[in-house]
Amino acid sequence: MPKKFRVFATCDIGDAIDLLRQRGYEVEIYPKPEAPPKSLIVEKVKSGIDGLITTLRDSIDAEVFEAGKEKLRVVAQIAVGFDNISRADANRYKIPFTNTAEVLTEATAEFAFFMMGALARKLWTAEHLTRDNKWSYWHPYLPFLGDEVTGKTIAIIGTGRIGLAMIKKCAGFDMNILCYDPAYQNHDYVKAIQENMDLRHVRGISKTKNWIKYVGVDEALSQADFVSVHVPLIREGESAAPTYHLFNERTLRRMKPTAFLVNTSRGPVVEEAALAKALREKWIAGAALDVYEKEPLSADSPLRDPAIEDRCRLYPHFASAGRITRLSSDPEKGMAGRTVQGLIDVLEGNYGGDVTKMPYVVNKEVGSL
Ligand code: NAD
């Protein structure tokens, strides 16, 4: 039985926690569904816990790491995005943190795809018509029509794990694909998708000969019928290519008036006031959002304006919310399992205690600080 470790989890992550308890860990779980106050996280860390399980709604910064400087050895985040954790401060205090990349990739990409379909084919408006008993006739174009996804052109902004998974799904719908990523370009993947598109055409599976290519941001935004965003939130000063307000008045105006925006990345990547204006003034045809500048979405958000209701789909940060993806205890399948394994790796010194070799540690540079 390994040494008994103390862990505080800021939320319940399901049965995967039992894996820790079975190993003799003492685990305390914050019992409420909403986020604990920051002061409580600091208090728990100060009390001498070895590991902290966090989510994207917890701000893990210098105050938390300072509180843990004597004892805290790992922060295990149940999410792939880690913009709520200060990497610079984690490194300053030499505390590794983990995330749950990969296990949520397909679930998030498929949700982005479904959001795109729901938006373009007006599923919400169409269901309301039926439920509200306002469907009074079949007519060739009244009361409204939607836009097909099949055969259209999509711009994938960010071709990391989720962007590439979205590409794979869009290729299945005979879409043409414009890729934009200033930091990482996977030309091998793009070549394989093109070969797949060519084969589908030659063998008569796809009527059209589709294409995929990397382009600059201007071409991506101005040519696409759909724009799907798959970047991390990077604030000014954190990188040469920040993503904070990447979608603003200037970039939204580059899109076609018939185009749709889909955002499953992080809320602050899109400037919401500019987007609401773009929808009201019809610079673009519609938007579907899963993430917001401030979550949960406030009651007075301009995105709730009834004037844009038919063109603006709103979801509750739900893209990774599949049962297996969120809760499987298997670290190869579930975010919960991966969170727990990342924590165990650090606390029990797996991989010879070398954090640079631990697959779920994000700030591997702590190993050489
Ligand atoms: P990833 O790191 O594999 O991919 C991100 C890509 O964005 C990288 O290739 C990077 O080079 C690129 N990029 C960085 N700056 C850019 C810029 N200015 N313009 C265009 N591309 C840029 O990450 P991932 O696993 O694909 O996840 C992407 C993000 O999706 C996460 O960081 C997270 O914030 C978000 N996410 C949201 C949900 C949800 O439930 N809505 C679920 C999972 C992930």
Quick recap of the structure?
With 369 residues, this protein is an alpha/beta fold. It has helices at residues 16-22, 38-46, 62-67, 87-92, 105-120, 123-131, 161-171, 187-202, 217-223, 249-254, 272-280, 323-327, 335-347, and strands at residues 6-9, 26-29, 51-54, 74-77, 97-98, 153-157, 176-180, 212-214, 226-229, 260-263, 286-289, 312-314. The protein folds into 2 domains: 6-103 and 323-368, Rossmann fold; 105-314, NAD(P)-binding Rossmann-like Domain (Rossmann fold, 3-Layer(aba) Sandwich).
Can you walk me through this structure?
The protein is of the alpha/beta class and 369 residues long. The protein folds into two domains: 6-103 and 323-368, Rossmann fold; 105-314, 3-Layer(aba) Sandwich (Rossmann fold). It is 33% helix and 12% strand. It has 13 helices and twelve strands. It has helices at 16-22, 38-46, 62-67, 87-92, 105-120, 123-131, 161-171, 187-202, 217-223, 249-254, 272-280, 323-327, 335-347, and strands at 6-9, 26-29, 51-54, 74-77, 97-98, 153-157, 176-180, 212-214, 226-229, 260-263, 286-289, 312-314. The protein has a seven-stranded parallel sheet, sandwiched between helices. Strands 2-1-3-4-5 form a five-stranded parallel sheet, with helices on both faces. Strand 4, helix 4 (87-92) and strand 5 form a beta-alpha-beta unit. The longest helix has 16 residues, at 105-120. The protein starts with 5 loop residues before the first strand and ends in a 22-residue tail after the last helix. The model has no long low-confidence stretch (mean pLDDT 97). The structure holds nicotinamide-adenine-dinucleotide (NAD). Residues 80-81, 101, 104-105, 108, 157-163, 180-184, 230-234, 241, 243, 246, 264-266, 290-291, 317, 319-320 line the site of nicotinamide-adenine-dinucleotide (NAD).
